[in-house]
């Protein structure tokens, strides 16, 4: 069961334990634990890095990215608290997660219950607790970051989940971190938050994912395709289907978030985080089918301007090219995605949709509008 | 981990993703046990496959499957940039790639290397009146040597001259390149470089084309890549796409300027969303120069020889218009419906054709400098300066396309 509010004195049980750590058994979590890790550098040289366990706050953490990130951080030996309203359970066993792993995680994960829009409460509760590092996974507006910064003047690092949606639309792609951003975009709150972090002088790092996918995705990205594939329905794709987008697996994103923790090279830097390769809309439909073991789908292209869908979206992606280079994260952080597209979609399918779970019920109303009309683009 | 007994105590590890730049002096001091000398290798065995832990499914190693890493036990001595090379460029006499040799020659000469350019054909041919050939005086005045001849007779043409490195920027298949490669091998050339083509990548739903991706097995260039990987100790392959730059032998941006400056619509096949890669040729030249100057790092690798950004076909039209300071009207059409030869109508492939230069960045430390918005301004200036904007031109195919678009297309 998850523990509430106050820091519990817990026996650290590090799952990766060289024998030199036996001296540190029994130390309470309230003191920072110093242990040395021997990391085999890929080129054969030995790298010895000192890594202190940190007191970490995740804003959010019970919905998607944070579920995986919190587990990685707890496994690394950090003390992790989730700031949520408590609408979802603090710890829920993941599909594929062993009972022992889940028991370990749920015995260690901490909860700070509150509404982050209640800025006074955020400031007072965070100030009372004190945290070394904040992962702001669900922040949308700069105003939401202010009380956190005010509460924690000695914050070591503010790690922010931004979005590649901040980039100004361009004919000249991929988006690199140096590219122009769009102050009028739907994600301008993310931009304003990044600017605030820079202005406040805190040690910040911002990650800009493109489309995130993976088990437990609440955004109907892969789920949208899986519903149609399962129902044996054609996949309606706007215009040419050649639009190029990019998906990044949530576990790879979580790994990137861990990589930047305490990393000097990440200080005051922005990183695009997504998959190695991009994909066309048509290609994505085929990849979903391949990953889930469905036959190749029938794809119908349509001109969105010819229809009135009301408030509903006929397709879950922006109707434009949208992809970003992850080269900076690869070369600066030494991070790289583990999942390629079909593998990642299979992971999502096998652990989620394929087991009968999904977030949104299938809604084929816009499909039927498209299919019902006699004129369709070839 | 294979350890070879050698006097310089070098340790070999199988490391597919290694980007260690190896010391060229260490590579040269490699003492192979007799059973592993190159002459004893059959044509289907490669040096790298001997050291790989898993069977290789391709007969030659690609940068993503490179399994041989040399890690000297002593401190790494980097290949000195002061080491000057004698380089031969075998250059095509026409086409989009012709300009590559021109820039490469000038860049090498500027860095103090010795350069000979062997252009296919005859110096007196009409083809030599076109750029870049009509500017070869720039190579000569920089102390480069320019000769002409048939690559099949290369030994005779070069009259016994020897070189450290050869770039074949001519052949599209083994018939054309083999004589050059064989001569190079027998005359002691250490490094063989080949201009292949990103056109050999198999079309994919998951762009971009990345080094190591599947190629069309029947493409002529593939045969060449395989052959040189087998016979040379030091080799590298470069796969370009489209390029712009003064001295270009083939129209690229000019196709757009021709229409934009005359206030004509720009007909683009398909959706106009097709992504392509258009590099300034100086980026290709800098990549080749890095490969010559750090042969050890380049060795055994395929490099996409392109800029680090893609542009859509519509985007290219817009950028050209912006560079010219003029408006543009883009019209889209279906080549099949209009009944015209797509290749004659439009200078780019009607599909996503988009490679990224990831190997060059990771392995050579190469950086792209192409900046289409800026570079196209310079190109437009030259376009106007040579008076091409005033030139009389016919647009027969365009007219046919535009006429057909006035007819409603039945669904």
UniProtKB/TrEMBL annotation, chain A:
A Pfam family assignment: Epimerase
Molecular-function annotations in GO: UDP-glucose 4-epimerase activity
Domain NAD-dependent epimerase/dehydratase positions: 56-273
GO cellular component, one term: cytosol
Alphabetized CDD domains for the sequence: SDR_a1 (cd05265)
GO biological process, one term: monosaccharide metabolic process
Top-rank taxon, per record: Eukaryota
Xref: PANTHER family: CHLOROPLAST STEM-LOOP BINDING PROTEIN OF 41 KDA B, CHLOROPLASTIC, UDP-GLUCOSE 4-EPIMERASE
Protein name, as recorded: Chloroplast stem-loop binding protein of 41 kDa b, chloroplastic
Name of the encoding gene: LOC113732997
Automatic annotation (TrEMBL), chain B:
Cited InterPro entries: Epimerase_deHydtase, NAD(P)-bd_dom_sf
Protein name as it appears in the record: Chloroplast stem-loop binding protein of 41 kDa a, chloroplastic-like
Top-level taxon of the source organism: Eukaryota
Record-linked PANTHER family: CHLOROPLAST STEM-LOOP BINDING PROTEIN OF 41 KDA A, CHLOROPLASTIC, UDP-GLUCOSE 4-EPIMERASE
Composition bias, Low complexity: 12-26
Biased composition annotated in UniProt, kind: Polar residues: 1-11
Region (Disordered) residue spans: 1-26
Domain NAD-dependent epimerase/dehydratase, first and last residues per copy: 95-305
């Amino acid at each position: 069961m998850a523990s509430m509010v106050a820091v519990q004195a817990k026996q650290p049980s590090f799952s990766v334990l060289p024998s030199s750590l036996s001296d540190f058994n029994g130390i309470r979590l309230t003191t920072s634990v110093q242990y040395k890790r021997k990391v085999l550098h890929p080129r054969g040289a030995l790298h010895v890095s000192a890594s202190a366990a940190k007191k970490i706050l995740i804003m959010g953490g019970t919905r998607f990215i944070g579920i995986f990130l919190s587990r990685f951080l707890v496994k690394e030996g950090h003390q992790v608290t989730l700031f949520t309203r408590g609408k979802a359970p603090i710890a829920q066993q993941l599909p594929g997660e062993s009972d022992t792993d889940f028991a370990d995680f749920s015995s260690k994960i901490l909860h700070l219950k509150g509404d982050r829009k209640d800025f006074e409460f955020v400031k007072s509760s965070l100030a009372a607790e004190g945290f070394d590092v904040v992962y702001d996974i669900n922040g949308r507006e700069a105003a939401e970051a202010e009380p956190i910064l005010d509460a924690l003047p000695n914050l070591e690092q503010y790690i922010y989940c931004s979005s590649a949606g901040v980039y100004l639309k361009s004919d000249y792609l991929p988006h690199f971190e140096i590219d122009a951003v769009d102050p009028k975009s739907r994600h301008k709150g993310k931009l304003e938050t990044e600017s605030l972090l820079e202005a406040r002088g805190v040690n910040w790092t911002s990650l800009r994912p493109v489309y995130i996918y993976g088990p437990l995705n609440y955004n109907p990205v892969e789920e949208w395709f899986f519903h149609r594939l399962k129902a044996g329905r054609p996949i309606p794709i706007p215009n040419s289907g050649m639009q190029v987008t990019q998906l990044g697996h949530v576990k790879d994103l979580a790994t990137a978030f861990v990589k930047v923790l305490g990393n000097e090279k990440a200080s005051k830097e922005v990183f695009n985080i997504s998959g190695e390769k991009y994909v066309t809309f048509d290609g994505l439909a085929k990849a979903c089918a391949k990953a889930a073991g469905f036959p190749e789908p029938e794809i119908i292209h349509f001109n969105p301007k010819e229809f009135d869908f009301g408030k509903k979206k006929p397709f879950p992606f922006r109707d434009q090219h949208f992809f970003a280079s992850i080269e900076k994260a690869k070369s600066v952080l030494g991070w790289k995605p583990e999942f390629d597209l079909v593998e990642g979609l299979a992971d999502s399918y096998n652990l989620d949709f394929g087991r009968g779970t999904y977030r949104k019920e299938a809604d084929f109303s816009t499909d039927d509008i498209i299919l019902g009309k006699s004129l369709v683009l070839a | 981990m294979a350890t070879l007994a050698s006097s310089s105590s070098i340790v070999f590890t199988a490391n597919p993703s290694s980007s260690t730049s190896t010391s060229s002096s260490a590579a040269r001091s490699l003492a192979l046990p007799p059973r592993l000398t190159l002459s004893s290798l059959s044509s289907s065995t490669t040096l790298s496959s001997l050291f790989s832990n898993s069977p290789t499914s391709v007969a030659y190693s690609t940068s993503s499957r490179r399994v041989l890493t040399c890690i000297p036990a002593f401190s790494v001595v980097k290949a000195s940039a002061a080491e000057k090379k004698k380089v031969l460029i075998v250059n095509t006499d026409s086409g989009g790639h012709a300009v590559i040799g021109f820039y490469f020659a000038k860049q090498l000469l500027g860095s103090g290397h010795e350069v000979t350019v062997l252009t296919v054909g005859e110096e007196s041919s009409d083809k030599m009146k076109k750029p870049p050939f009509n500017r070869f005086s720039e190579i000569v005045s920089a102390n480069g040597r320019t000769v002409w001849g048939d690559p099949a007779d290369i030994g005779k043409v070069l009259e016994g001259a020897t070189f450290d490195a050869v770039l074949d920027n001519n052949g599209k298949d083994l018939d054309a390149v083999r004589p050059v490669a064989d001569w190079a091998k027998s005359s002691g050339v250490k490094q063989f470089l080949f201009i292949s083509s990103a056109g050999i990548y198999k079309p994919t739903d998951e762009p971009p084309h990345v080094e190591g991706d599947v190629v069309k097995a029947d493409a002529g260039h593939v045969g060449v890549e395989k052959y040189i990987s087998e016979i040379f100790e030091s080799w590298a392959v470069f796969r370009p796409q489209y390029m712009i730059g003064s001295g270009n032998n083939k129209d690229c941006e000019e196709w757009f300027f021709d229409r934009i400056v005359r206030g004509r619509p720009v007909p683009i096949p398909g959706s106009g969303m097709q992504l392509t890669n258009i590099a300034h040729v100086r980026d290709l030249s800098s990549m080749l120069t890095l490969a010559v100057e750090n042969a050890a790092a380049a060795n055994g690798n395929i490099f996409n020889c392109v800029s680090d950004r893609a542009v859509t076909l519509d985007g290219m039209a817009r950028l050209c218009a912006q560079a010219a300071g003029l408006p543009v009207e883009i019209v889209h059409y279906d080549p099949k419906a209009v009944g015209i030869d797509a290749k004659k109508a439009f200078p780019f492939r009607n599909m996503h054709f988009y490679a990224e230069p990831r190997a060059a960045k990771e392995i050579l430390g190469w950086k792209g400098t192409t900046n289409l918005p800026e570079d196209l301004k310079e190109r437009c200036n030259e376009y106007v300066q040579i008076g091409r904007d005033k030139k009389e031109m016919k647009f027969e195919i365009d007219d046919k396309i535009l006429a057909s678009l006035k007819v409603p297309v039945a669904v």
